[in-house]
Amino acid sequence: MKGTRPQWWAGSIGRPVATALKGGALLAALVSVSASSGNTGSMNEQPAMRPRDGSGLNAEPSLISENTALVAGRPGIIAITFALHGKWHLYWPGQNDTGMAPQGRLSASIDGAEAEGFEFGAWQWPSPKRYVLPGDILDYVYWSRVTLLVPVTPPESAIGRTVTFAADLEWLVCDEACVLEKKRVELSLPVVSEDDNAQLRPTAGKRHIDEARQTLPRPFAPLESMPTDTRPVVSASGDVVTIRFPGARELHFLPHADGVRISNALSGGKVEGDTIRIELDRADDPEKKNVKGVLQVLWRLHTVPTSYDIEWTPEQIASGRFFDSPADDRGGAQKSPGKPG
Q: Which DSSP symbol is given to 124?
C-alpha cells in the first residue's frame, strides 16, 4: 500500500471510446492526456456526468470502523466503503479490459505526526461481478456499494491516544462515461488496552463491514468431512487447469491482475454445469507465474454464489498439489470450503 500513486486525469472518457481501448491501452490513454488534476476536458468532448446529490463524485468514499475504538495488540478492521450512484460501477483488481481498481495508501497519525508501530494488512476485496459489454469487453465490477477491509493492529505505545487514519484514494468509475475521481478520507479512533473495553461498541458502519465479510472469498482447501460427492476435484494438463465442483449448477473464474493471463476468460470464464477449464497464457507475461483469481460456485438450490480464493504456483500445478495454498508455507491457517447450508 506504500507504492507510488499515479497522477490520474480528472476528466471523463466516453464509454464507446473506453470499450475500444483494452487493458493497459486504456490506462495509457488516460494518463497520457493530462497529469493535471484540474483538467476537466474530455477526449470526445462528452461532459462528465455527475450525481444528483451535488457531491461532485459518482462514487463517494468514506472510512469506517467496526467498533468505536481499537484495541492495542489486537487486529481490528478499518474499511474503505464506496457508495455508488445510479448505474455507476467500480472495478475489482482483475484482468479487466477497460477499468482499474481503486488505489490508495492508508496511514495513521497522532497529533499531526506519523504514528509509529501500526501494522496494516493487505486490502481485502469482496467477490465482484463478471460484466460483459457489447464488443466482447470483459470487466469485473461492483455496483451500489463496495467495502474494502483493511486489518490494522495498533501498538501498545498508542494506548490512551487518539489516532487519525487517512487514505488518499483514486479510482475510475464508469457508466455511460468513465470518470477518474479522487478524494482524501479520514477517521479518528481512540486506542484502548485489552482490559479497557468500555469504549468498544459497534459503529453504524459495522453493517457494511459485516456485509463485505459475507462476500469475501474463502480459502480453497479440501474438507475431509465433506461428502465425497461434493468435494472439488482439480487436475492439469499442460496449460489447462480443470476444476470440477460436484453439485454446482454454474462456475465462474475471475482472474486477478497479479496472476498469469487467462486466455479463455471471456469464452470459458463462465460455464453452466460443475466443470470449468482455465486456459493459461504464460507467454503473455512470463513474470506472472501463479494462477490467481476467484472461483465462484453457484449451487443448484442457492441464488448467492460461494467464492473461493485461488492461487497456485507452477510447482503446485505440475505436482497436482492444488490444495497446498502458498499460505500454508507461511504457517497461515486456512478454513476449508463448504457447501452453504
A: B
